[in-house]
Write a structure and sequence with these properties.
about 220 residues, two-stranded parallel sheet
């Protein structure tokens, strides 16, 4: 089924919480084991890609580190440092105010179609989601999971009370909203999908989301 906001509820019905085999701590331990196995087994591949992408950024867009560190909000509202490939010009943060009037989403989200701050290689990395690849290190460190709500750059104090339910689980490299609406959804809509994921979370749902994410990446539907 091709997922969208209208049919996601029907799709999730196939993952009835009452039929889950593994719940609670058992599910969390299995989820963590799956994260580690998949990341470690695939390490030779993604480490090679990281080296190549790092070199290309250093050559084509000098003036700032190829990998940048940014504070994100994780489980329980705890802040942690996330790793990403730099996809913008070195002075992108300074230019943010200049282009603030072009923001297409509700604050504190910030998105501009064809953002002029994005480099040529950065555009490719975003379309293929390769800019997120360094976050596999965050997964190894136990700060993130392969599947879960995407960690926000703004702190938990910015959240409304009902938003905080997404902080009950570790943030993910990908999640339900990324295979439904990707970058086009407003924060509240993404939160509703995050909460729906939490309510239906199971190993099989995680596997399906990972598969659909890979398919979305091949279709170059970038998300951030």
């Amino acid at each position: 089924m091709e997922l969208n906001q209208n049919n996601v509820t029907d799709w999730l019905a196939d993952f009835d919480p009452e039929k889950r085999i593994f719940t609670g701590q058992t599910y969390l331990k299995l989820k963590r084991a799956m994260d580690l196995i998949l990341v470690i087994v695939s390490a030779p591949l993604w480490l090679a890609v990281i080296v190549v992408v790092w070199a290309i950024i250093e050559i084509t867009s000098p003036g700032a580190p190829a990998v940048f560190h940014q504070l994100r909000t994780g489980k329980g509202g705890k802040r942690f440092v996330i790793y990403k490939f730099r996809t913008m010009v070195p002075n992108a943060e300074e230019l943010k105010q200049k282009y603030a009037h072009l923001n297409e989403l509700q604050w504190p989200d910030f998105k501009i179609t064809n953002d002029p701050r994005i480099t040529k290689i950065g555009g490719f990395l975003r379309k293929t989601s390769l800019d997120e690849l360094p976050q596999l290190i965050n997964i190894l460190k136990g700060q993130m999971s392969l599947v879960g709500p995407r960690p926000t750059s703004f702190g938990a104090e910015t959240y409304k009370l009902w938003h905080t339910e997404r902080l009950d689980v570790p943030p993910g490299l990908t999640g339900l909203w990324q295979i439904v609406g990707r970058a086009q959804l407003e924060f509240d809509d993404r939160l509703r999908l995050d909460i729906a994921y939490i309510d239906h979370a199971c190993i099989w749902l995680d596997i399906v989301i990972l598969y659909k994410t890979v398919m979305a990446v091949f279709q170059q539907r970038g998300a951030h």
